[in-house]
Design goal:
Layout (H helix, E strand, L loop, with lengths): L7 E4 L4 E3 L11 E6 L14 E3 L5 E9 L2 E10 L41 E9 L2 E9 L12 E6 L1 H9 L5 H4 L1 E3 L15 E5 L6 E10 L7 E2 L3 E7 L20 E2 L5 E2 L11 E4 L2 E7 L12 E4 L1 H4 L7 H7 L1 H7 L3 E4 L3 E3 L8 E7 L6 H13 L3 E7 L2 E3 L3 H6 L28 E3 L5 H14 L5 E5 L6 H14 L4 E4 L15 E3 L1 H12 L6 H11 L7 E4 L9 H5 L1 H13 L3 E5 L20 H16 L9 E3 L2 E5 L19 E6 L6 E6 L5 E5 L6 E2 L4 E2 L1 E3 L5 E5 L2 E5 L3
Length: 725
C-alpha cells in the first residue's frame, strides 16, 4: 500500500516531507491539494517525494494518486509560533541544513528554551458497550500556569482506516464519532476537540487508529501543540492487526476502568489493558502506538565496538564476541548494541558502508553473525543492529559510478554541492549523503530494513536527525508490523521531542551526558542532573518517551580520563538510578582508558567490575529505578565524612555540597532515596525523608549519626536506601 501514512500536526510555516510508502521506483505518483482553508496558497511539488508547508491554520486534505489508487492525508495546522522553543522534530528539516558552510551543531549544551514550551498528551483506549472510547490525558508544560482542564485536545482518525471502513461498506468513522469534554455526555466542537472520543464499533474496519495533540493557549501567546500520541484498536483475527502487543480477552460489554480510564475487564489494574468486546463476535485489542517496548522498562544496554572488543584473528570476531556473551550476562546487561557489522571501506568504526546486504569479511560471515545473535538470545540478551540510513561510503559502487559523471543512473541517489562534491556533514571526507527524495533510495533502504530486522530485536539508528521524518515513520510501521516489541532508538543530538511522534521509542540523552561531564569537571553542581532530566518535559517530550543514559560511547573520551575515578563512579551510578535506560560502553566496566583501543581484559580493575555488577543488579531488582519510576526532588544537607568538621571545606579531596545530589525514585512501598557523591572523599548526607539504614547497592549499613544527633547517609559514590523503613 502506497498510502503516505498517519496524519500530520504542524504549525503554520513548518515543513514536512511527503512520500509514497513501499514505493516502486518505476511507478508514477502524483500529489495534489484536495482541500485547504480559505486564503491558503500552499502548494505541493510535482515529484513523487515532495514537501508541504501549511501557510494558514486549519484542515488540509492532500491527495496522492498511486498505482494502487487514490489516497488521502490529513494535515492539521495550528497558528503556533515556536521561536526559541525546542520543537524542531516535526519534520527534521530545522536541523537538516544542507549548506556546507553552516556552523556545526553543538554536541549537547544546555539549550535555552525561552518562553513556554509544549504541553503533553497521552491516549488510552477501551471498549465500552458498542463504542470504542479513546481518552486523552493532557498535561500542561511544567513552565505553564495553565491547568490541565485549560488544555484542548484535537483528535484525528487515521485516513487509512477511514478508507478501509468505506471500502468495507461501513459508516465513515469520522462521521459517526462523538467528541466530548471530560464528564460531558454530549458532542462538542465538530473539529475533533475535546478530551474523549467515541466511535461506534460497527464503523470500525480491521483497524482503527486515532491520533491526537494537546493544545495550550497561553494568554498573550499563540497556541502550543504537543507531540502527537496515537492508539490502534484492532479486531481480533483481522489481518490489519500489527504485532502481538496484547492478547484478546473475552469481557463484559462494559468493563471496569482503572485510574487512567483504560478498560480493566479482570478488575486488576495490571491486566493487559485496553481490550474489550461488544459481542462474542466482536473482540478487540488496543495498542499504544508510541509506547516503547515493555522490555525497555527494565533494560540495561551494553555497547560493543566490534573491532576492538575481542582479540580475534581475521574473520573470527563474531565468534570471539559470542564467547564473551556469558560474561556480559553475568555483568547484568540484557541488551547488546553492536556497532556496524556490514561490509565497509575498511575504517574500523564500520559506518562507511559499501554493501548493505552482507557482513564484513574481517568479522566473519553471515552464518557467524546469526550464530552470535542466537548465542545472545540463549543467554537472555537482545541484540540491536546499528542501522545507517543517511549515507554510503564513497567506495560504494553507486558513488563510484556517479562521482563526476552527470550521466550516471546513480547520480540522483546522492546529494551534491555546487562544487561537484557530495553532500556530507562535519567535513567527513569518506561518506556521501543519500538523496532521500529519490524513490530508488527509499526502496533500497526499505529492502535493507527487511533484510536485517527479522534477525534482531531493534535498531540503533545512526544520524537519525539527518534523515527525513517520513522515512522513519514508514520504517516504524514496517518493523512494528513484524514485531510490536521491536526497539527503535535514535542518535539525535541534541534530542528532539517530535522524534517520538510515530518514529522512535528511546532517544539518546546527550543532555544528561553533557551535564554529567560538567559535574565531573567541577563546572556545574551535582544537583543539575535533576535539571537535565526535568528538561525532557520542559521541551515537550511526552511522559512515555524513553531515554538512553550514558557517560561514554565510541565517539567520546572515557569519562574517567576527563573527570577522574571518583566522579566516574558517581556518574555511572547516575545513569543507573535516574529514569531512563542505562548503557555501559565496552570497557567502562573494567576501568578502560582508551576510547577505541583493544579492550585490556587482562588488566581489568576488579573493584570497578564489581561496582557495575552491583549497580546493574540493583537496577534489575528495583523497578522504581527504571523509566517508569517517579523522580522527585528532596531536601538534603551535606557534610564531609568527618562528622565533626565545621564548616565544610571545598579544597583538596574534601566534600563540597555541590559534589552531592539526593533525589527520590518511585512511590509507595517501593520508593527509594538515591544519593550520589562525585567527590573523592566520603560524604555524610542528611535526607529529608524517612529512610532505611541499608544501602541496597552494597547490602551494608550506611547510616551514621553526627555530633548534633542527626542521622546521615554515608556515601562513597552512590547509596540507594529504601524509603519508609
Amino acid at each position: 500500500m502506497h498510502h503516505p501514512g498517519p496524519p500530520r500536526f504542524l504549525s503554520t510555516g513548518e515543513t514536512t516531507q511527503l512520500a509514497p510508502r513501499d514505493p516502486d521506483p518505476e511507478a508514477t505518483y502524483e500529489w495534489r491539494i484536495v482541500d485547504a482553508p480559505p486564503n491558503s496558497e500552499a502548494t505541493v511539488g510535482e515529484t513523487p517525494i515532495t514537501e508541504f508547508t501549511p501557510d494558514v491554520p486549519g484542515h488540509y486534505r492532500l491527495g496522492l494518486n498511486a498505482p494502487d489508487g487514490n489516497h488521502a492525508l490529513t494535515v492539521r495546522a495550528f497558528p503556533a509560533a515556536y521561536e526559541n522553543v525546542d520543537v524542531a522534530g516535526g519534520s527534521g528539516e530545522a536541523i537538516r541544513d544542507r549548506d556546507a558552510d553552516r556552523a556545526e551543531i553543538p554536541y549537547a549544551g544546555d539549550r535555552a528554551h525561552d518562553g513556554i514550551g509544549r504541553p503533553r498528551v497521552r491516549l488510552d483506549a477501551s471498549v465500552e458497550g458498542d463504542a470504542i472510547v479513546v481518552d486523552a490525558t493532557a498535561t500542561p508544560n511544567p513552565d505553564s500556569e495553565l491547568a490541565a482542564e485549560d488544555l484542548d485536545v484535537t483528535f484525528v482518525i487515521d485516513d487509512r482506516d477511514v478508507s478501509s471502513a468505506i471500502a468495507a461498506g461501513r459508516t465513515n468513522p469520522r462521521d459517526a464519532r462523538q467528541v466530548t469534554a471530560s464528564g460531558s455526555e454530549t458532542a462538542i466542537e465538530t473539529d475533533g476537540s475535546g478530551t474523549t472520543l467515541r466511535v461506534p464499533t460497527r464503523t470500525v474496519p480491521d483497524r482503527l487508529r486515532v491520533h491526537a495533540v494537546a493544545v495550550a493557549r497561553e494568554p498573550g501567546h499563540e497556541p502550543r501543540i504537543s507531540v502527537a500520541d496515537a492508539v490502534a484498536v484492532d479486531r481480533v483475527g483481522s489481518e490489519g492487526s500489527a504485532g502481538d502487543a496484547s492478547a484478546p480477552i473475552d469481557v463484559d460489554p462494559i468493563g471496569d476502568t482503572d485510574s487512567t480510564g483504560r478498560a480493566d475487564p479482570t478488575g486488576r489494574a495490571d491486566s493487559p489493558g485496553g481490550t474489550g468486546a461488544t459481542s462474542p463476535d466482536e473482540r478487540f485489542t488496543v495498542t499504544r502506538l508510541n509506547q516503547p517496548p515493555e522490555w525497555t522498562e527494565n533494560a540495561r544496554v551494553y555497547e560493543v565496538y566490534v573491532r576492538t572488543f575481542a582479540d580475534a584473528d581475521e574473520g573470527e570476531t563474531f565468534d570471539a564476541i559470542a564467547d564473551r556473551i556469558p560474561d556480559l550476562a553475568d555483568l547484568g546487561v540484557d541488551t547488546l548494541w553492536l556497532t556496524p557489522v556490514l561490509t565497509n571501506d575498511g575504517k574500523p568504526h564500520g559506518y562507511n558502508i559499501t554493501d548493505f546486504f552482507d557482513v564484513a569479511d574481517d568479522l566473519g560471515d553471515r552464518e557467524d553473525y546469526e550464530a552470535l545473535v542466537d548465542t545472545a538470545h540463549d543467554h537472555g540478551l537482545r541484540v540491536l543492529f546499528d542501522f545507517v540510513a543517511n549515507h554510503t561510503a564513497r567506495d560504494h559502487e553507486w558513488f563510484q559510478d556517479a562521482y563526476r559523471n552527470p550521466d550516471s543512473p546513480y547520480r540522483d541517489r546522492y546529494e551534491w554541492q555546487d562544487s561537484g562534491e557530495p553532500g556530507t556533514y562535519f567535513d567527513w571526507e569518506l561518506i556521501a549523503n543519500l538523496n532521500h527524495s529519490n524513490l530508488s533510495v527509499r526502496r533500497f533502504l526499505l529492502d535493507v530494513v527487511d533484510e536485517w530486522a527479522p534477525l534482531v530485536d531493534g535498531f540503533r539508528c545512526d544520524m537519525a536527525w539527518a534523515v527525513p521524518d517520513s522515512f522513519w515513520r514508514e520504517l516504524r510501521d514496517r518493523v512494528k508490523a513484524m514485531d510490536s516489541e521491536f526497539l527503535l532508538m535514535d542518535e539525535t543530538i541534541p534530542y528532539i521531542p517530535g522524534f517520538h511522534e510515530g518514529m522512535f521509542d528511546v532517544h539518546f540523552d546527550a543532555t544528561l551526558y553533557f551535564q554529567l561531564r560538567q559535574i565531573g569537571r567541577g563546572a556545574a553542581p551535582a544537583r543539575t542532573v535533576v535539571d537535565a532530566v526535568e528538561q525532557r518535559a520542559e521541551i515537550g517530550f511526552p511522559d512515555h518517551a524513553g531515554f538512553l543514559q550514558y557517560i561514554e560511547n565510541h565517539d567520546e573520551t572515557r569519562y574517567r580520563v576527563e573527570c577522574g575515578d571518583a566522579a566516574a563512579a558517581a556518574a555511572g551510578a547516575a545513569t543507573v538510578t535516574l529514569p531512563g535506560v542505562p548503557m555501559v560502553y565496552a570497557g567502562q566496566e573494567i576501568g578502560q582508558r582508551g576510547r577505541r583501543d583493544s579492550i585490556a581484559w587482562e588488566h581489568t580493575r576488579g573493584e570497578v567490575r564489581e561496582r557495575y555488577e552491583r549497580l546493574l543488579r540493583t537496577h534489575a531488582d528495583h523497578p522504581a529505578l527504571g523509566p517508569e519510576g517517579d523522580l522527585e526532588r528532596v531536601g538534603y544537607h551535606v557534610a564531609s565524612g568527618d562528622l565533626s568538621e565545621r564548616p565544610i571545606q571545598a579544597d583538596g579531596d574534601a566534600v563540597h555540597p555541590d559534589d552531592v545530589v539526593a533525589f527520590l525514585r518511585g512511590s509507595g512501598p517501593n520508593a527509594l532515596a538515591v544519593v550520589l557523591n562525585f567527590a573523592p572523599a566520603e560524604a555524610a548526607v542528611a535526607v529529608d525523608a524517612d529512610h532505611g539504614r541499608t544501602n541496597v547497592v552494597t547490602g551494608e549499613p550506611c547510616v551514621v549519626t553526627d555530633g548534633d544527633g542527626t542521622e546521615r547517609i554515608a556515601v562513597d559514590d552512590v547509596a540507594v536506601v529504601p524509603i519508609g523503613e
